[in-house]
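Exam revision sheet. Question 4 asks you to relate a sequence to its structure. Input first:
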Amino acid sequence: MAKKFDFKSVATWETGELESQPGPSGIRKRTATSFDECAKLLNMRQLMMIKNEQIDYLTIEERKVLYTACHVVPTVDPSYVYNLITNKSMSSVETIVEHLFGYGYPTIKQRVRRECMELRRKAFLCEDGQTFDFVQFLAIYPNPEIFFEEKRKTDEIYMKHAMAFLSRKFEQYDVKFIRKLFINSNKQLLPAYRILKKHAEAFAKSKNAPHFVTNAHVKVKFRRLSDSGKIPDYPDSLDELFFREAQFCLYEEEILNYKVNCAAKRKEALEHAERNSLLKECIICCEDCHLEEDMVKCSKGDHEFCKNCVKQHTEAQIGDGMNRISCMDPSCTDGHFETSSIQNIISPALFRLFILHCLRDEILTSNIGNIEFCPFCDFPASFGNSEDRTLVCLNAVCQKESCRKCQKESHIPLRCEEVQEDVDFETKKRKFIEERMSEAVIRKCPTCDKKITKETGCNKMTCPCGTFFCYVCNVALPKENPYEHFSNVRGRCRQDTSLEQLHEMAAKRAGLEALRLFNEHNPESIDVKAPNINELAGLKKKTKPATTKE
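Answer key, structure tokens:
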């Protein structure tokens, strides 16, 4: 039986009465008395989803009910509320809210993730109208026939993907038979697909009965309705390795032919270049057997390097959070590699991360108002209402809701200080001290606040935004002669110092200060055992966060 929902405790939405009783965080419950006000109550993500529904079929009153119900239960998928109004004939907000809280409901997060996964599946299987990219595939898997034929262990998610894929590609075969064949093929997609494809092609050419059992004589729609023959759905999570293997299954012959043709053309081009002394040399790896198309030039056009060296350099710089891939020639201070040059060199996932870095820095430097970033994935979000306390991440992979004040997961209706952590004082003290010590070995750019930690080199640091600053005192340095700041005179910052000693001293000072502050704000914890700060300081120099090289 459905649980009765106390609608009066929320608000009298339909009559427009406003309950003025504040919640734990002083949030007043809001109501709406007009259609426009109802629409304004919803966040951008809810409005975008509602626009996709057939709103024109709803009356003004029904639209008001839809908007209001979605505001009362902000996590519900608007399309589910739409169906309740149109199919279940629920005409009041109270009835809908009681149904949602009584029987449960699909959420926006589930819908976004489901739609995102479906789009990615279609893209992998080229069901979105796009053509298969042989170049990108072979860049990731240069020898796919060796990689996918090698025996390996597979998990339950992989098996679910395989059963969903094979059952759709070979609908004439019984699902139980496909499962048995897949298990006998070492639970790997490629050998199972090859067997089914070979038999299906032979059976299509022959009028004789097949040599293993199928239910081809049974109509597909009836087979799908039976429990034994129901085509399994794809799992909610997406296994990218599986879909790469599925791509190889679908385009195996074309991929291998393309690979052979490319190898023949390259061999011919190398012979021609060698005869005419046209081979290029990379100054990084010192190999002199590269073709013109193997080389990548920096933006200045004066220096070029082989794709393999550029790839390794780009991966390292993106890992350091750079939004500008600098030229590898030490004398080229202003040169960099264009985005179009590196797009086909690195993996699509890494390129997406690079674009996200660029987007973030572009937003920060352009001073766009009402923009904040998800603390969990750095995805940007726009705020039309500055009073909103929760940031809802629109990144389909993340989708986390965080508090804009404390940057932790949303804890509405509690205030930040009202959130009680279920840990003892000893754990809280250790955590507080460790966090402050970790922050002490990280420097922030004085211009853009980007976090940077040095790996090697001198104390003149260069931020991706172009700012020079001192790693010792964190002061911005002049563009003309940044090294003028350093001196061996006592009291001045040295250009070269022991990195381990510098980090250890900074961590120790921060640890002692953190211990003092914690005991000052928590007098009852003075007698609680404190961690050994000297040992922690020695640890911090070995377990550093993401770094940026000079």
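Marking note for examiners. The CA atoms of residues 125 and 247 lie 6 Å apart.
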